[in-house]
Specification:
Strand 3 and strand 4 form a beta hairpin. The protein has two domains: 171 residues, Rossmann fold, CATH 3.40.50.720; 156 residues, Orthogonal Bundle (N-(1-d-carboxylethyl)-l-norvaline Dehydrogenase, domain 2). By secondary structure, the protein is α/β, with parallel strands linked by helices. Helix 7 packs antiparallel against helix 9 and helix 9 runs parallel beside helix 13.
Length: 336
């Protein structure tokens, strides 16, 4: 059995996971873009909310721009953005003919289908990264929110589970992974809100107006899921159905009852917020857009999620937006 782990799409999440695995003694190869190379080539510090810090010396990580580095992997972690999933699958097919296990650690609900369609002879497993990774300064990656990795229940991952546990990234295996993906997607609906607010996550979630926007999007998504016969799994301490009510509480009461939701690094922002700031395309079509597509199949409306998709697309390639919460809510409410 090949024990080597390859991380395909080593951005912030991929570098953090791959770096932690390397520091714990795993054989890891990272494949990414040139803009992330300085993180891998210089000294790299991995830090977390609990004060943990792992130092990786300069030159210790095996980082490559060349997908031929997939050739000797036994496990491939796919951490590319959803729009690049098809391209990632083609790279695996071309450069990993030994058919490694493929674990998708991506946002959204459609990536597994793309990977399985293009890699029919591979063991493809759905996974989830619940936490956010930011780079507060050059040479440091910070795990800014809480949560453990999850994956669909399978024995295919058994050989690598000890390595993830040793790296402080234990994987919880779930038999109900489609509901888990939708439960995570409900939380990811905030990515678009955060991107349009242009604020750090904690500052945004501390304001009731923005939380009311998120509550609107979640409530609509829950109606769509009910119409489609999908019951999202509980992936936080709060049941999915109770989230909209909790989010609409006044600030003081929300802080008292849901303080754990604000246990976020003060400077952490969603990846979609970072993408807009950098002028990159976002994953909104794979998050809020997934709700819209499911609504179309179920024959029910999803105007608020449709409207926020349009707002994010309008902001792509333009000056990073900074919608006040009340204005953003007004933009979505008439769409109902």
């Amino acid at each position: 059995m090949r024990s080597r782990i390859a991380v395909l799409g080593a951005g912030l999440i991929g570098l953090y996971v791959g770096g932690a695995l390397h520091a714990a003694g795993a054989d890891v190869g990272l494949i990414g873009r040139a803009r992330m190379r300085p993180y891998a080539e210089g000294p790299l510090a991995l830090t977390d909310l609990d004060g943990g810090r792992t130092e990786i010396p300069a030159g210790a990580l095996d980082y490559s721009l060349d997908p031929t580095a997939l050739a000797d992997a036994g496990l491939v972690l796919v951490t590319v953005k959803s729009a690049a999933t098809g391209e990632a699958a083609d790279l695996i097919a071309a450069h990993a003919p030994q058919r490694p296990v493929v674990l998708s650690l991506q946002n959204g609900v459609g990536n597994l289908d793309v990977l399985q369609t293009r890699l029919p002879d591979y063991e493809v497993v759905a996974g989830m990264v619940p936490f956010n990774v930011v780079s507060p300064e050059p040479g440091r990656l910070h795990r800014a929110t809480e949560g453990d990795l999850m994956a669909a229940g399978t024995s295919a991952l058994d050989p690598w589970l000890p390595a993830f546990a040793a790296a402080g990234l234990p994987i919880t295996l779930r038999g109900d992974f489609v509901p888990v993906q939708w439960g995570k997607l409900l939380l990811n609906l905030n990515n678009a809100v955060n991107a349009l607010a242009g604020l750090p996550l904690r500052a945004q979630l501390s304001q009731r107006a923005y939380r009311r926007v998120l509550a609107l999007l979640m409530e609509e998504a829950l109606r769509v899921l009910r119409a489609a016969g999908i019951r999202p799994a509980r992936v936080t301490k709060v049941p999915p159905g109770a989230l909209p009510t909790l989010l609409r509480l006044p600030d003081a009461l929300f802080t008292r009852l849901a303080g754990s939701m604000l246990r976020i690094d003060p400077e952490a922002r969603s990846s979609m917020c970072e993408d807009l700031a950098a002028g990159r395309l976002t994953e909104v079509d794979h998050l809020n857009g997934a709700v819209v597509r499911l609504a179309e199949r179920a024959g029910v409306p999803a105007p608020a999620n449709r409207a926020i998709v349009e707002l994010v697309h309008a902001a792509e390639g333009a000056q990073a937006p900074s919608f006040p919460g009340d204005e953003l809510l007004a933009r979505l409410t008439p769409a109902r």
